[in-house]
Specification:
The protein is α+β, with helices and mostly antiparallel strands. The protein contains 21 helices and 13 strands.
C-alpha cells in the first residue's frame, strides 16, 4: 500500500530540487496550489493520470516518486516485474520509437509539431532557458486552419506560443516565411515547416490588443483610437524596410495587374464588371436595405462616382507601369490587407505594433495600405485623414528619400479609387458592408473630386 506521507515528502524534495514553487507546479499541471499542498502534507495522493507529467517535470521515473513510499508486501513483490525489467522495457520502447519515428502516423503523434521540435525551437531563441516541458491545447478550427495554444514551461520562465496548421488557404504562411528575414514587425516566429504547412510563433493575445476592437466602446477600443499614430509609424517603418528593394521584389514578384499596360487595363475591366453587377443587383432590389448594423441608403448621384472612378483609373494607372512598377522606383512591399483587425498593439505604454494576416503581401504603392487603413476604416474625410497622412510621410522620410509629398498624395488618390471597387466586390460576395462603401465614397469626394 502507498504511504501518503512518504509520497508527500518525496514530491516536496523533487519539487525543491528543481526550484519550483507550489503555485508554478500547480499551473503546469492545470490544478490548484491547494491540491499540491495536500499531496505534500500527506493528505491525498496525485491522480494516476498526473504521475507521467510529474515524472517529466521532475526529470525522473514514476517509480522515483512512488516506490520509496511502498510498504513492503511479499505477494505484490513476487508478482510485479522488477524495477530493472521495467527500466529495460521503457528504454527498449523509447529506442524503437526513435528508430521508427519516420513511420509514426500523425494520428499517433497528434496534429502539429513534435514536442522535441518545439523545445529545440525555443532553445534557439532562449539557449539558457534550461529544462522545458510542453503543454498543448486541443486544436481549434478557424478559417479552415487549426490553431493550437502551447505553453513551454521552464523553472524560471514560461513562454506562450501559438501553432497554426494551414489548410488550403496557406498564402499567409509564405508571407510570414518571407517577411521574417527582414523585419520584426510580425510576432516572433520560432519555426516554419512549409511542407507540413505549420508555423510556430509568439502568442501575443495576453499582452497585445487586436485592432478588431477599434469600433467598440470599451477601454481597448479607446486605446486603439488614441494611438493611430503608433500604427502609422510602424506602417512607415515596414514600408521603408522594403523601399525600392529589388532583391525583395524579385523574391515576391510583381502583382500580375501591374506587370504591363495590358494587365492593368484588364484589371480595370474586371472592376467595371464588378460595378455593373452591383448596379444591377441594387436596381433589382437584390441587395438588402439593412445588413447587421449597416443601412443601405446610397444617393444615386454618388453611385455614379464609380463610373467616373473607372475613367480615372484608365487615365492614371497605366502611367505608372513603366515609370514605377517595372523600374522599381518609389514602390515597396505592402501588407495588402491592412485594416485594424490585422494590427496588434502592445498594452505597454510604448504601444509596439505587430502586423498579422499577411496573405495578400505584394509589391505595390505604399498608399495601397494607407487607403485600406485610413479611407476604408479609420478616417475617410480629408480634414481628418490629412494629419495622419502627414505623420506617416514624416516617419517614412526618416529612411526614404526622393519621394515627394505631392507624389504621395497622387498615389493616395489612385489607391482610394481602386479601394472603392474593393467595397463593391465585398458586397457582390454577400458581405454587405455599406459603411465601408460609403467611407470610400467620402474619401473619393474629399480627396479626388475636391482638387
Amino acid at each position: 500500500m502507498l504511504d501518503t506521507k512518504k509520497v508527500g515528502v518525496k514530491i516536496v524534495t523533487l519539487r525543491k530540487s528543481i526550484g519550483l514553487q507550489q503555485e508554478k507546479l500547480a499551473e503546469m499541471l492545470n490544478i490548484s496550489p491547494q491540491a499540491i499542498s495536500k499531496w505534500e502534507n500527506g493528505h491525498t495522493l496525485p491522480d494516476t493520470t498526473l504521475l507521467p507529467k510529474l515524472a517529466q517535470i521532475f526529470r525522473c521515473t514514476i517509480d522515483d516518486i512512488i516506490m520509496p513510499a511502498y510498504s513492503f508486501d511479499e505477494k505484490i513483490e513476487a508478482e510485479k516485474p522488477t524495477l530493472l525489467d521495467q527500466q529495460a522495457e521503457y528504454i527498449a520502447k523509447y529506442v524503437i520509437q526513435k528508430m521508427d519515428g519516420e513511420n509514426i502516423s500523425k494520428e499517433k503523434k497528434g496534429p502539429g509539431l513534435d514536442n522535441d521540435i518545439i523545445i529545440n525551437s525555443v532553445y534557439n531563441v532562449f539557449p539558457n532557458i534550461g529544462y522545458c516541458t510542453v503543454t498543448k491545447s486541443k486544436p481549434v478550427k478557424k478559417d479552415g486552419n487549426s490553431i493550437i495554444s502551447i505553453t513551454v514551461s521552464a523553472s524560471q520562465k514560461e513562454i506562450k506560443l501559438v501553432e497554426k496548421i494551414y489548410g488550403k488557404n496557406d498564402k499567409e504562411l509564405y508571407g510570414l516565411n518571407f517577411i521574417k528575414e527582414y523585419t520584426r514587425a510580425v510576432p516572433l516566429i520560432y519555426h516554419i515547416d512549409l511542407d507540413e504547412k505549420i508555423v510556430l510563433m509568439d502568442d501575443l493575445s495576453n499582452d497585445y490588443i487586436q485592432g478588431y476592437e477599434f469600433d467598440e466602446n470599451n477601454e481597448n477600443g479607446e486605446i486603439i483610437r488614441q494611438n493611430y499614430n503608433a500604427i502609422l509609424y510602424s506602417t512607415a517603418k515596414f514600408h521603408s524596410v522594403f523601399w525600392e528593394n529589388t532583391v525583395a521584389f524579385e523574391k515576391i514578384g510583381l502583382d500580375w495587374r501591374v506587370k504591363s499596360n495590358e494587365n492593368i487595363l484588364s484589371h480595370i475591366s474586371c472592376l467595371e464588371k464588378d460595378y455593373k453587377k452591383y448596379q444591377s443587383n441594387e436596381e433589382s432590389g437584390k441587395i438588402p436595405k439593412v445588413w447587421m448594423n449597416f443601412e443601405n441608403n446610397p444617393e444615386p448621384e454618388k453611385l455614379n462616382y464609380f463610373k467616373e472612378a473607372l475613367q480615372y483609373l484608365r487615365n492614371e494607372y497605366p502611367k505608372l507601369i513603366e515609370t514605377r512598377f517595372n523600374s522599381g522606383k518609389n514602390i515597396t512591399i505592402v501588407h495588402g490587407d491592412l485594416h485594424p483587425g490585422q494590427v496588434l498593439m502592445a498594452k505597454t505604454k510604448d504601444r509596439t505594433i505587430k502586423f498579422i494576416g499577411l496573405q495578400a503581401l505584394r509589391t505595390g504603392l505604399c498608399t495601397e495600405d494607407l487607403a485600406m487603413l485610413l479611407a476604408l476604416h479609420i478616417e475617410s474625410d480629408k480634414s481628418s485623414a490629412k494629419p495622419l497622412l502627414d505623420y506617416y510621410y514624416k516617419c517614412l522620410c526618416e529612411q526614404v528619400k526622393d519621394y515627394s509629398y505631392e507624389e504621395l498624395i497622387n498615389d493616395y488618390k489612385l489607391s482610394i479609387v481602386e479601394c472603392m471597387f474593393f467595397t463593391i466586390r465585398l458586397i457582390n460576395s454577400g458581405i454587405y458592408d455599406f459603411n465601408m462603401r460609403d467611407k470610400a465614397i467620402k474619401a473619393y469626394e474629399t480627396f479626388v473630386l475636391s482638387d
